[in-house]
Amino acid sequence: MAIIIKTAEQIEGIRASSRLAAETLKYLEPLIKPGIKTIEIDALADEFVQKHGAVAATKGYKGYKYATCVSPNDVVCHGVPNDYVIKDGDIVNVDVTTILNGYYGDTCRMYEIGNVSDYAKQLVKVTNESLRLAIKECYPGNYLGNIGFVINEHAVKHGYSVVFEFCGHGVGVRFHEDPQVDHVAKRNTGPLLKPGMTFTIEPMINAGKARCKVDRKDGWTARTIDGKLSAQFEHTMLITETGCEALTDVFGDF
Fold it and tell me: Do 92 and 232 form a contact (C-beta atoms < 8 A)?
C-alpha cells in the first residue's frame, strides 16, 4: 500500500472529521469522574458522535463492538469498555476515531481523575511532551523516523520506556493507511515527509518495561507486563507546504 497524498477536498473532509473527534474528547472531559464506568464513557462518546452525523470507526472493526477504547492505569491501549468503575487517582486514556462523510479523524488523550499522584502526573506530562516534540519534526523534507527518534529520546531521558508493539499510521480516507509511524526509530530513517500526507502520532509511554500483554478474555485490551502505569496522547497530523497542522489539536489543551 502506497502513501496517499491527499487532495485539497480530502484534506477538508479529514479536517472536519478530526475536529469532531477532538470535540468528542472535550465533551467527555467534565463527565469522566469517580463513579463512572468505562462502558458508560463509551456510550456517551457514541451518542455524541452520532448526534453530529458521524459514526465511530471502531464499531464493527475486526469484530470490535465499541465506539471508543478506554484504557485506565496499566492499560496501554485498546481498552475494551466494561464495568470497571473509574476511581479517584486513576489516569484514563480515551481513544476515538470518527468517520464523517467518509473521512477519518483519530485522536486520544489522558484524563487525570481527582487526586492523582505526582508519579502518575509526571508520566502523563512526559508523554504529552513527547508528542509535542514529535510534532516539531513534522515538516516537508524531514525523515519520518525522526518522529520516533525524538519520542524515544525524551521518554528514556526521564526513565520511561516507549511501547514498540503498537504504532501510529496513515489515516484520512481509510482507518489505517501507510505509512507506519514508529515511536522508536533511528534518526534520519524512513520515507521523507511530503505535503498532503496525513497520519497519526500516538506515543504510548510506560513507567516500567516497554512490553505489553493482551488480555485473553477479550482479545483486545493491552496491558503493561509489569502492572506499571502507561500513558498515551494522539493527534492526526497533516504535512503542509511550510510545516504541519495537528488536525485534532482543536482546543490546544493537550
Answer: no
Residue 1 lies in a domain: no
105 occurs within a structural domain? yes
225: its cell numbers: 507486563
> Are 169 and 199 in contact, with CB atoms under 8 Å apart?
yes
Q: What is the DSSP string of 107-129?
A: EEEEEE-SS--HHHHHHHHHHHH
Phi-psi category of residue 84: left, alpha or beta, with phi > 0 → left and psi -120 to 50 → alpha: beta
Torsion of CA 79, 83, 89, 95, to 10 degrees: 30
Phi-psi sector, 140: left (phi>0), alpha (psi -120 to 50), beta? beta
pLDDT, one tens digit per residue, over 206-225 is 999 999 999 999 999 999 99
pLDDT exceeds 70 at position 1: no
Question: Residue 221 gets which letter from DSSP?
Answer: -
Report the predicted TM-score, pTM, of the whole model to 2 decimal places.
0.97
Q: Is 254 a domain residue?
A: no
Task: Establish if 151 belongs to a structural domain.
Answer: yes
* pLDDT attached to residue 253: 81
Q: Which domain holds residue 76?
A: 8-246
pLDDT in tens, 58-101: 999 999 999 999 999 999 999 999 999 999 999 999 999 999 99
Are 39 and 79 in contact by the 8 Å Cβ rule? The answer is no
Residue 16 near residue 102, CB atoms below 8 Å: no
Mean pLDDT, rounded, of the chain: 98
